[in-house]
Amino acid sequence: MNIFKKKTSPKEALRTSKREMSVATRGIEREIASLQLEEKKLVAEIKKTAKTGNEAATKILARQLVRLRQQITNLQGSRAQIRGVATHTQALYASTSISTGMKGATKAMVAMNKQMEPAKQVKVIREFQKQAAQMDMTIEMMSESIDETLDKDEAEEETEELTNQVEYWHRNCSIVFLYRSISIIILI
Fold first, then answer.
1. Is residue 140 part of a domain?
2. pLDDT tens, position by position, 8-31
3. d(CA 19, CA 25)
4. N- or C-end of the chain: fewer Cβ atoms within 10 A?
5. What backbone phi and psi angles, to 5 degrees, belong to 151?
6. Residues 121 and 42 in one domain
7. Structural domain boundaries, residue 165
8. 88 and 157 both lie in a single domain
9. What is the pTM of this model?
């Protein structure tokens, strides 16, 4: 271990890991391709020996074909595992990035809390609410007194007019209802 070596960042480690995984995957894929080519040749040779009637050679070649296919299957499984490891490595890097971002956000929130002093802010908000409630009461009292002085006569006239309209509407609705009831009875 070299003590003078610079510590690698997660991004650099991810890049190196990806590169190594790609190299390994390409190597396995080359090996699979060559084994598949070998499989085709072996199948052709098995057919050729089967036509000649050499049963012993055909059985030996068939065993070789089975082993070759097992080897191809194993290599494909290894390739899948390497890809899985690469995906897992990428996910770990993403979670590292998220945790780094959260760490920065936490520091910012701590700094904001120090500047804002939450206890002092609560006191200011309570005082504001108290003053707002006081102002609402004052405005309400002033509007009531203004309404009383300016609109006393108009309010009484409007109230009487609305009452008359409601009574007129009620009478008309009763007449319409009665008319409909009579017409329904007549139809029956």
1. yes
2. 777 888 888 889 989 999 999 999
3. 10
4. N
5. -110, 20
6. no
7. 153-188
8. no
9. 0.52
